[in-house]
């Protein structure tokens, strides 16, 4: 019998830009079922979730391909609804497909995995001189990302580059990081894909950790006997 992975996006499901690439690392014995915190909402309704000063900022993608930015506080009850739904559908493990930091408020009968904890736990162990670069989707996330990663004790530089816009923001991040004296680059968003990782690695000459694949590899260990 296949194991069921319940995947929760902070945006709208299904995440056809994410799940297929992760599935390659999960094994053949895993079925993915999805739910989204913004499912059922119109674009105009989502715009009402606009972040204010000191809000924790999240960035995600809608089913129509548009990128949205919103405050985490607005979706917390909706995330619990996603958990409840996926449990009813038989999820064995629940994964937030977002590298943001979430409060410890969710109730579940099944294990909940947070990519931020996996990425934050592994990446600092790969820093050998104490210098880490982080790519985050939006300029409004730079401060909170710097605070989060500085807790590892590493010297941190954070640059914004969205994986969701039509503009090539990644080129600017590559140029900024290319000549920096850094040990490793963390692409701190599930939206970044393997093609983007290759561009950053080749463009900077630095090793790169990609959130979606490192999380999928860990999940493969958990879900496959």
From TrEMBL:
Superkingdom assignment: Bacteria
Short name of one Pfam family: AroM
InterPro entries named among the record's database cross-references: Uncharacterised_AroM
This protein's name: AroM family protein
